Amino acid sequence: MHFPRIRLLVGEVKSMKRNLPWLAAISFLCGCNAKPSTRLEQPIKEQTADTSLPDIGTGHSKSASPEEVDATLQRIFGRLVIANRADHSSVTGDFNGDGSLDLAVIVLSVKTELGMINGELANWTIQDADQFFTPPAGERVVFQQKQSRPSVEAGEPLLAVIHGFGKAGWRDSAARQAYLIRHAALGDLRAIRATGHIERAPPTVRNSDVIYEGSNHGEFLFWNGSQYAWNRKANNKP
Amino acid sequence: MPAALGSKVIHPYSDFLLHNVGTGDGIVQNGPPDTANKMRTAPLWGVRTSDRLMHDGESLTRNEAILRHAGEATFVINNYRSLSTNQKNQLITFLNSL
């Protein structure tokens, strides 16, 4: 006798399950709170200054095998990009200074998938390393209004950077924050600790790794807190 | 408190808490040193009027701003990544209504 009611409930639960990820995303992004009056900020525990970073990639190799690189690219970009197989086309390091190991790899965009790669709601951010201007030290400058969102061109080599998450870094399946960077795929990638290289950057960036490429001696790619940019040698030190 | 201002229910769409969402700039937030890389959630109320987003104004689109969140926000942002284009558009339309 109660069968129809039970079927109705099952239908409602299925409907709720379908909508759960969407609702979760909205509630976080919007800071929705069912009981705003009862949610209080927890007191912050006192502690001594500790500017050191946690160990990077505990229990994991710093180098990336081609299979791991392919699997990671597949997880994030699907079949939209192809990894460059040349030597030193990938490098790992803590590029954004968050204590997790990140991956940088040179990729080629698949010509037939440009629409998906450049999509406005794509799950990655396209940046142009040449768009960011690093002001010369000791000089006052006026920043130009940021240019429009860059687009990838057919067959263009790009530097794909995947930011790591937790101790497993870029190998963690939750590590899906990714950037496709134009004008930053010169090859022969090397990661070097930024200490001493960047003088006027915030502490998180100062404790990160920077990427040297090819024969571009003295110039390196670094995370400035919001995007990857070239640091020109002439601009780095007064 | 004037009656016109007091005892009103508002919906600022913020928890007003400090979170490490991977965008910290190393500046201590009126607290101990471990707040240096945390940001206080800005209210989304009125976000429709902003064309430059996040604390540094470096994000030009809603999608770009959402994807910049990492750290504590990783899992919920991965939920966003799993949405269809239509669902993402619905969410962004909602944000543009605030």
Describe this structure in words.
The complex is a heterodimer of chains A (238) and B (98). With 238 residues, chain A is an alpha+beta fold. Chain A has one domain (66-236). Helices cover 21% and strands 20% of the residues of chain A. Chain A has five helices and ten strands; from the N terminus they run ααβββαββββαβββα. In chain A, strands 1, 2, 3, 4, 5 and 6 form a six-stranded mixed beta sheet that branches. In chain A, strands 7-8-9-10 form a four-stranded antiparallel beta sheet. The longest helix of chain A is centred in the first third of the chain and has 27 residues, at 3-29. The termini of chain A are far apart. The model of chain A is unreliable at 1-10, 30-36, 46-59 and 234-238 (pLDDT under 50). Chain B is mainly alpha-helical. Chain B has one domain (18-95). Chain B has helices at residues 62-67, 74-81, 85-95, and strands at residues 18-19, 39-40. Chain B has a two-stranded antiparallel sheet. The two termini of chain B are 26 Å apart. The relative contact order of chain B is 0.17. Chains A and B meet through α1 of A and α1, α2 and α3 of B.
